[in-house]
Structure formats: C-alpha cells, structure tokens
Amino acid sequence: MVKTYQYRIYPTKAQTQTLETQLDACRNIYNQALAWRKNTYEQKGGSVSYVQQANALTPLRGGSTFWSSLHSDVLQDTLRRLDKGFKAFFRRIKAGENRGYPRFKGQGRYRSMTFSHLAKTLIRGIGGRMARLVVPKMGEVKICYHRPLPNGNIKTLTVQRKASGWYANITVEVDDVPKAAIETAVGVDVGLESFLTTSEGEKVGNPRHLRRAELKLKRKQRIVSRRKKTSHRRRKFVHELAKQHEHVANQRKDFHGKTAHRLYSEYDAVVVEDLQITNMVKNHHLAKSISDAAWGTFISTLGTCAKAENAGLHLLCVPPHGTSQICSGCGEKVIKSLAVRIHRCNSCGLVLDRDHNAAINILRVASTLRGGALVVNSPNEARNHTDTRSFTSPRALAVGS
Ligand SMILES: [Zn+2]
C-alpha cells in the first residue's frame, strides 16, 4: 500500500521564483499537449497517446536550456496527468455520465509537480524540527519534518503550492496489513440532518461550524464569479477565499478522519452505499450538494482508514437500492418522501428513525451479498427516533460463524 505524508516546506525567495517558473512551464506543456490531442481529433478524428507525447519531449529538451533545466520526471508526469484526464473522460462517456472534457489551465491553475527519481537521502540534517529536503535539479529546501517517514520504499515527491504556502507530499510504499476476520459490522447511512446514522441507531451530527463555513464559502464563491475578471480587488479576494477554502478543507478532513477512526475502533467492517453506482444527479440545493460532496470524501477516508488501522479492517460498499423505502423489520415497501423523517410500517408496526431504518437495510444488503455472513439484529423494539446516543456504547452485531 502506498501512503502519502505531507510536510510544509519553506523555499527561499529565489527557490520560490524557480518553482513558480517551473509550474508555469508545466502548465504550458499541459496546455500544448491538450491542444495537440484536441486538434488531432477535430482535424483527423484520430487520437494521440501518452507515449507519442512523451517522445516529443526529447527534441524539446535537447534544443533548449530552459526546457532541459526542468526535470524529465516532472514533464512526463504532466503528460501523464493529461492522459489520466482523457482516460477518465472516455470512461465517463462510456458510463453515460457528465462528460467533462479536460480543460486548458489558466494562469496559476497548475499547482504541483511530481518527481520519481529522488536522492538516496531525501531528507538531510534531521535533528530538530527543521531539516532539509532534496528537490531534484534544485537542491535543498527547508522542510518542517514534524513526523518521521516510515521505513519503506520512497516512491515520489510532489511539490505543491497551496494558498497557505508550499508543501511536499512524499509517497512511501509500506507493507499491507493482513485483513482481519469480520466479527462486528455496522451499516452507515448518510443524511442531510445528521452527517451519518448507524444501524445501531447512533448518530453523528454535522459539526455546526463546518456547515456554516461551507455555506459561507459557497456564497462567497458566487460573489467572486460576479466580480470583474482583471480587477485587483478580485485577485485579492480570490486569494483570501482560497486560504479559507484550504482551512475548511482541513477542518473537514479532521472531522472525517476522527469519525472514521471512531467507527473502526468499534467495528471490523463498515458498510456504506456505493455512491459511484448511483448516478448522482447534480442538484442545485446548496446544502444537499455540499453533503453529497462531503460524503464522497468521507467514503475515501473510510477506505484509507480501513487499510491504515493496524488490524486491516474492511470497508464494504453495497449498491444503493431503495434502502430508505424498505422496512427493516418485515421487508415491506413503505414509500415516503424525503421530508418524512420517521419510518412507520403498517405491516409489522415498526416505528423507527428514517436513517436508522436505512442503515439497517444497508447492513442487511451487505450480509446478503456475502452469503448471509453478517447476521443482522432485528430492531425488535421500536426505538425512539430522538435517540441520539454517541459512540460510547458499542453494541456490536453478532456475526454468524
Ligand atoms: Zn415492517
């Protein structure tokens, strides 16, 4: 498994200048390569491969001191990113999703470069908090080495510019943890009112400060798009906004990480609905679209967390099929709109919080898919929908053996 470690770096003024110039050169290459692909398609209906484009780098670098001053890793990686963009584009067409043709990148829109051929000792002068990072073709850059890299093969170094400053992302290949047997599993449903509800009826709310900050940002974003493109005020505002975006993203990441960790500290497996299968409709409801986006990142956090936890835990994804409409008590269909928060079944008399009912169904689908390996408790006593216990009392589900 490859893990990424992020560190803040402090390039000097001259180094910053070089990095900026190189990022802009990458942007240039990216745009040229994109134009090449686009023109070839429009004029001849043909396509250009990554290899063809990478081969064109050799004469370019041979004929210019500027281009040869850039590391070949970085240029190849730029072309690879474009190639990835095109592959994703074709995959989306095939799946009948929104297409999203790869776009030309405007000034400042290319933000990172990746090196794969690195110095044997990537970090030098380790002692205190500050050390030196060896960036290929550039030399040593001050780095805040706040936590040690694990033992393992270092794969890549990505130097990234963010609104708050410069960062180094280092990927390291570490050993996979063997998967644990599933003894306890929990189903998780996503909601608008609470961030998630488990099949045990536990709820995790949306942190209010995060929700507020997200809504505020989205509104400000709309103001920016109304401002005059070239104005100085707009540019300043955009930078401020980018910094706030980064801050909120960090807060969200922190919240997701803690929530995922809490779930995995109590259960061996977490079951969620696979949103990639749902053809997620782009909706214009602000809060809803934010919660959908957050849910996507949370699932990937769960995935990383499952691998990273020492025991090798599981994230199970099930196809979303009417889990909110089916009664978890008797299997009867109980049609209700999104506004109806409580599930009431006329067949078996079950009264349950809507999301709780859905979470039980999600867990049940996973159990069925795994040949009934996960035994799901029936909610035999109708629980009060205001029941909002926190994660303190795990009542793990029994698993058939
Ligand atoms: Zn029922």
Structural Rg: 25 Å
Please report which band the strand proportion falls in: under 5%, 5-15%, 15-25%, 25-35%, 35-45% or over 45%.
15-25%
* Parts with pLDDT < 50 across at least 5 consecutive residues: 277-281, 377-401
Distance between the termini: 30 Å
Number of domains: 2
H/E element sequence: EHHHHHEEEEEEEEEHHEHEEEH
Could you give the count of β-strands? 14
Number of H- or I-type helical stretches:
9
The largest beta-sheet arranges its strands as 2-6-7-1-5-4-3
Note the overall shape.
globular
* Residue share in helix: 40-55%
Q: Which small-molecule species are bound to the chains here? A: zinc ion
Largest sheet: 7 strands, antiparallel
Structure description:
The protein is of the alpha+beta class and 401 residues long. It has two domains: 2-173, no CATH class; 185-369, no CATH class. Helices cover 41% and strands 18% of the residues. The chain is built from nine helices and 14 strands. Strands 2-6-7-1-5-4-3 form a seven-stranded antiparallel β-sheet. The chain has a five-stranded mixed β-sheet with strand order 10-9-8-11-12, sandwiched between helices. Helix 6 (208-226) runs antiparallel to helix 7 and helix 7 (232-266) packs across helix 8. The protein is globular and about 80 Å long. The structure holds zinc ion. Zinc ion binds at residues 327, 329-330, 332, 345, 347-348, 350. Residues 327, 329-330, 332, 345, 347-348, 350 line the site of zinc ion.
